[in-house]
């Protein structure tokens, strides 16, 4: 994953060189290097267990903790609701899709020019500009780690359905390829046809066109076990599939859809409908507390770290901590939902 260094610095109060960023992250187990040209892009090689760092916010959070500084995320993402149009959603398997949020945005200008700062950051990250709507969904994915998808409202018949594929079901995708799937694959469909392979790639017939006026914006959490291995079998190596395979934060869907809506309104106009939300609390991942023993820290690292510093580091990484024996024996640490390791 390639990210511009200046984008990372936007979310944490650090005044260090790009070389120092690379050194700090690599020493912390997030291997990366600074690309020679132009020397402002960091190429990050993530191990499969660190899906939380597949975003600007994730890497910036690590940098903030390493430098004992504040992590800044844009919490002011709430948008106005301009109309009451909604599209019905149906989840046939909540275990495969515990969270699905969608919103209709009407009267967009799909031919609006994507701002230079967005196209530059996309290009630096290896993603080509397509149109204002696709660019914004890709931009928010890189920023938050949450893949998004936008449908042309005209292409959806009645409702959005999340279901397993039928035996030998064919679907033509955005890249023009035709894939044959079965019940092992999760699909997004309407009452008449498949609209895309969930978490991997959308269908050709429901994509954004040059005359699209009204869209349905989708933000979902798909079970990584459901998606795992499917992109490789289908020979579809997408940024979305890569993130859903390793695990996406199951609590960030609302933030991401609001963030994308805000950018769409700012640069492409549009009138927002309410967010339609289907969330299965019983199927959403939970995190159990882990005992972090103080003696074990010293055994592994060979150094003594003050209790206050340990708590400070864990807190900056969004861990919930509870002291055991006033910190003498250690802490019960509950990881945040975005940590799958």
TrEMBL record:
InterPro entries: B3/B4_tRNA-bd, DNA-bd_dom_put_sf, Phe-tRNA-ligase_IIc_bsu, Phe-tRNA_synthase-like_B3/B4, tRNA_synthase_B5-dom. Residues 285-341 form the B5 domain. GO terms for biological process: phenylalanyl-tRNA aminoacylation. One of its GO terms (cellular component) is phenylalanine-tRNA ligase complex. GO terms for molecular function: ATP binding; magnesium ion binding; phenylalanine-tRNA ligase activity; RNA binding. PANTHER family: PHENYLALANINE--TRNA LIGASE BETA SUBUNIT, PHENYLALANYL-TRNA SYNTHETASE BETA CHAIN AND LEUCINE-RICH REPEAT-CONTAINING PROTEIN 47. This is B5 domain-containing protein. The lineage of its organism: unclassified sequences, metagenomes, ecological metagenomes.
């Amino acid at each position: 994953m390639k990210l511009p260094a200046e984008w990372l610095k936007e979310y944490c109060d650090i005044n260090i060189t790009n070389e120092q960023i690379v050194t700090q992250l690599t020493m912390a187990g997030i291997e990366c290097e600074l690309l020679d040209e132009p020397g402002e892009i960091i190429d990050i090689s993530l191990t499969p267990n660190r899906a939380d760092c597949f975003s600007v916010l994730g890497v910036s959070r690590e940098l903030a903790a390493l430098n004992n500084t504040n992590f800044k995320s844009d919490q002011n993402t709430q948008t106005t609701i301009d109309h009451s149009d909604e599209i019905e959603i149906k989840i046939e398997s909540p275990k495969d899709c515990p969270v699905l949020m969608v919103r209709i945005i009407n009267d967009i200008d799909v031919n609006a020019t994507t701002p230079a700062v967005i196209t530059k950051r996309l290009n630096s990250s290896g993603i080509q500009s397509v149109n204002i709507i696709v660019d914004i969904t890709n931009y928010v994915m890189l920023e938050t780690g949450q893949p998004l998808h936008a449908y042309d409202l005209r292409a959806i018949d009645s409702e959005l359905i999340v279901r397993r594929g039928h035996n030998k079901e064919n679907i033509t995708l955005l890249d023009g390829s035709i894939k044959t799937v079965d019940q092992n694959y999760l699909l997004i469909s309407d009452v008449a046809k498949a609209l895309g392979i969930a978490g991997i790639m959308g269908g050709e017939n429901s994509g954004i066109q040059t005359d699209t006026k009204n869209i349905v914006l989708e933000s979902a959490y798909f079970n990584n076990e459901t998606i795992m291995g499917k992109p490789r079998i289908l020979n579809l190596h997408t940024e979305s599939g890569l993130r859903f395979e390793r695990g996406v934060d199951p609590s960030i869907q609302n933030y991401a859809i609001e963030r994308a809506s805000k950018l769409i309104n700012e640069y492409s106009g549009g009138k927002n409908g309410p967010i339609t939300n289907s969330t299965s609390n019983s199927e959403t991942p939970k995190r159990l507390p882990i005992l972090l023993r103080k003696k074990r820290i010293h055994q592994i690292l060979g150094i003594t770290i003050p209790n206050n510093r340990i708590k400070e580091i864990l807190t900056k990484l969004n861990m919930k901590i509870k002291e055991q024996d006033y910190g003498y024996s250690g802490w019960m640490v509950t990881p945040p939902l975005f940590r799958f390791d």
